[in-house]
Amino acid sequence: MSKHDHTAAAAVPSPTAGGDPQDFDICIKLIDQLWSLRQAMLERETALKDELEKVLPEYRQSARNLIHYLTLRSVDLRPLQEQLSRLGLSSLGRSESHVLASLDKVLGLLHRLTNQAWQDKSTEEPAGSVSSQALLKKHTFRLLGQAPAGRPVRIMVTLPAEAATDANLVRGLVDAGMDIARINCAHDTAQDWQRMSAHVRSAAEAVQRPVKLLMDLGGPKIRTGQVADRPPVLKLKPGKDDMGRVIRPARLHLRPIDSTVQVANVDASIGVWEVWLARLKAGSSIHFTDARGAKRHLMVIHNDDTGAVAESLQTAYLTPETVLTLGGTGGKKKHATLVCQIDSQQGALRLHVGDHLRLTRSGLGQPSAMDDDTDTPSPEPAHLAVTLPQVIDQARVGERIWFDDGRIGGVIRLKTDDWLDIEITQARPEGEKLTGDKGINLPDSKLNLPALSDKDIEDLKIVATQADMVGLSFVQKPSDVALLRDHLQRLGRENMGIVLKIETLQGFENLPELMLSAMASPVSGVMIARGDLAVECGYERLAEVQEEILWCAESAHMPVIWATQVLEFMAKTGLPSRAEISDAGLGVRAECVMLNKGPYIIQAIRTLDDILQRMAGHQAKKRPLLRALKAWSGTDTPASDAMLATPMTMNF
Q: Which class for 123: exposed (0-12), middle (13-18), buried (19 or more C-beta within 10 A)?
């Protein structure tokens, strides 16, 4: 049936008696608009025929629906939605999973309202309201496994380093409700990952339920290089009250050189020569001149095989050049020793708004002369290296750059062959410290970085033997996905699940193409990695971006993992914030929610399990579920029970 057959005025009967002529005219216009949309969907599907043929047969219908959804959302539908709602029809607001079927349903009703014939078109539709749910359920099961009873959303937990040596820790996570374990290959060693994997399999077998394993590749993460350590200086400071009076002496542990023993209830520890240390006894007095030239002394209060503990009532600064002298009073012979071992302090650059920072290809990071507490202006600003030097070639003047999860912001002002000069534009008034191994984001830069590093390719050998699915970090282009598929095929794991980690602006913008590429693999899904994504897109845009990812993935019937900073404060402190409880509740719209490690992770898992079970009765994807609200019913028998007991029939 042609477009003309549906919209020609001469073919449209007059409205029935009692009908509103204005509504009739609206129906005619809506039919024309919706039919144009339908034609555009099918035309775009035809134009992308070659791309569809690359998709595995079991994903073909999902890929078609994705294309229809992208066509639908390429125009502003709000005026059309308003008119549909006025007529009491579906406004297509929840049509993601079955776009063409939803549109055809509305077109069919509009034809009935205008007394026009309508032919069933279900054979042309890739998915209906029921079959689309079945497709998502099937794809989710293949990637994430079976959901637990009473909770349709799985819980994933990032394993801490201790999981490699503590099987009971892993068992505790599984007992609390962990359905999927995540190993971050950017940390720990291959041997650690294998031990973690073994502990996960053992715990799953013990509780007689499957627990899936995801291993994330490190990917082309751009980080800061190391900053030169600061000189080893130990500040020993007693506790004081608001009036400056000492209420607690500073306690120092003196241990043999190279000893790693730790002692409780001390403020610091230093290494000294064992021969000198053996002379110390409770009550011994130690005298020294500290790094500022102030004369200080320590009183030994305890000694044993691990060393000695001494107290000071005054603030003191010790360095490896500090000489400690035992005795020397009452004619006794003095015994002196150098402080031989003070742990170096991690290097850091302190940056303020207006400062300049050079990002270099290599070398240890160094502060500017001003950071050295001098009054002489620095001839060169602070500088540090970037772990991926090709960034210097590809970044451009005027582009933004962010450090350490967006804590420090800047703009590239100058570029040379060897470095970028960055003006700091965002930092707290008191300044920010920037250390090594912190993330760098360049949201404006069109970076062409390798999808898989040499380390990733080596790590894949272990991942292929241990994991159920692999996380492709910082994925940006369809060719990145194809490269991973090639390596998995070479390793005999072409059936391994692939998780697209969307954490860059380019990855978000290319999401549909990435999903089509992933559909050439038997099992795939999407992770909303909200940490880096927030920095890349801007925090104010994150809520919008994560919504759009959820919609796009639903249109492709592809499972989503809701990740990064879920109940993070609770996992670290044991107490959740109000905001993160609400955020965790939104996770019910995904197929899996990921928690990061923390000392209170068991409590966080149990809390998330409770939240997701409660929310499952109220929300399914975007669709609100109208469960009976017993809190306000005022009766033991809700009205809905009586209504549902009477069959309802509707005639068209």
A: exposed
Q: Which two tokens stand for residue 448?
A: 């062409």
CA dihedral 602, 605, 610, 612 (to 10 degrees): 180
What is the structure's pLDDT at 10? 39
Burial of 260 (0-12, 13-18, 19+ CB in 10 A): exposed
What is the C-alpha separation between 236 and 215, in angstroms, rounded? 44
Collapsing DSSP to helix, strand or coil, 308 comes out as strand
Residue 49, judged by CB atoms within 10 A of its CB (0-12, 13-18, 19+), counts as exposed
Token representation of residue 76 = 């502003």
Task: State the residue for tokens 């068991």.
Answer: 602
Cα 251 from Cα 249, distance rounded (Å):
6
Cα end-to-end distance, the chain, whole Å: 22
* Matching fold, domains 234-338 and 349-441: yes
**Domain map (residue ranges) of the chain:** 10-127, 138-220+450-615, 234-338, 349-441
Q: How far apart are CA 340 and CA 276, in angstroms?
A: 12
The backbone torsions φ and ψ at residue 295, rounded to the nearest 5 degrees and listed phi first, read -80, 130
Q: Is the pLDDT of residue 16 over 50?
A: no
626-635 pLDDT, tens digit per residue, is 888 888 876 5
Cβ(591)–Cβ(144) below 8 Å: yes
In the predicted model, what is the mean pLDDT of residues 540-553?
Answer: 95
Distance CA(486)–CA(27), nearest Å, equals 52
H helices, E strands: number in the chain: 21, 29
Q: Which residues contact 562 (CB under 8 A, 6 or more apart)?
A: 528, 546, 586, 587, 589, 590, 592, 593, 594
CA dihedral 269, 273, 274, 276 (to 10 degrees): -100
Which one, of 214, 239, 107, lies nearest residue 158 by Cα? 214
CATH topology of domain 138-220+450-615: TIM Barrel (3.20.20)
What integer pLDDT is reported at residue 15 of this predicted model?
Answer: 52
- In CATH terms, the superfamily for domain 349-441 is PK beta-barrel domain-like (2.40.33.10)
Q: How many residues does the chain have?
A: 652
DSSP bridge pairs for 410 = 401, 424
Can you tell me whether residue 42 is helix, strand or coil? helix
Q: Specify burial of residue 439 (Cβ count, 10 A radius: 0-12, 13-18, 19+).
A: middle
Other CB atoms within 10 Å distance of the CB of residue 74: 12
Class of domain 234-338: mainly beta
